[in-house]
Amino acid sequence: MLDLQTLTAGARVTVFGSGNQRGVLFDPVKDIPSLAGKVILITGGAGDLGKQVAIELARHNPARIYIADLPRADDGDSVVRAITRDALSDSDQHAPPTPIRYLAVDLSSFESIKRAAAAFCAAEDRLDIAVLNAGIMRVRPGTTAEGYEVAFGINYLGHALLTRLLLPKLLHTAALPRGADVRVVAVSSEGHAMAPRGGILFDKLKGPCEDITYYQRYGQSKVAIIGFARELAARCPQIKTVAVHPGRIITGMAHGLRKESLLFRVTAPLSPLFCVPAAIGVRNHLWAATGPNVETGKYYEPVGVPDKETAIARDPTLSRRLWEWTEKEFENAIEV
Known about the structure:
45% of the residues lie in helices and 11% in strands. It has 13 helices and eight strands. It has an eight-stranded mixed beta sheet, with helices on both faces. It starts with a helix and ends with a helix.
């Protein structure tokens, strides 16, 4: 059952979503600097937000962009073509298109993550920007291949493992003479406020968690992302690591949730009043990945507004416990 705290937070987040019209003024066309020579990886890059992030970054001449998303029958060719086409539509048509690579990965499977990380590391000698954008919004309980609660397993744990396996590339790039501005942008949500009391129910992370609500399962996965960003920033200060909330955006993922959530259906008529298209919703991603004055270890709401997380998400004891729990799970499950 929902406790009063979670019910109140759920109603606030659903009806009064964080806006996208305050904070730092950031125009991707003018404010993203040249990305020449940089290698970028975006998880969930085939979805609405991830695709738009790739399009905007591709217009600024990076060396390569990797779209890390679920395996596809066409090996991602249609996604690559669409991003390349849209990136060129508002830029210099005579400039060579940024090379886009598709990297198949299922974040619900440690084995798939290991294969994807190995493929990337074999192909590249650097990684400048990692945007951990993929995620799920679903109501029905379920588990990952290794038996973790599915929202926590995909939204947080899969990204934590992928980052762990790519960390040598990130650190190597940060040590290069011209590679000091290495960034990891982890996409959280103001929905972290719907997490259960204590932030994360560590004793329930294995199994489908059928005895707690979707909102709590989703919320704790987003609390974990904030804690992960803070801990990675503290442990690897060479890398600028932040968590971001993109604001209120109607994407395909949200449309799917509307079919299963009564609260989403009831409030759907109000969504045009406070929702923005993906092209605006990705500005917090893009600012965090490329903009000035980004402080490592912070959680930012759009655009560039820090310190809006809940007290439990800000708790350093919780983030340290999460890091230690995660390390133990990786030791027990895989060789790293």
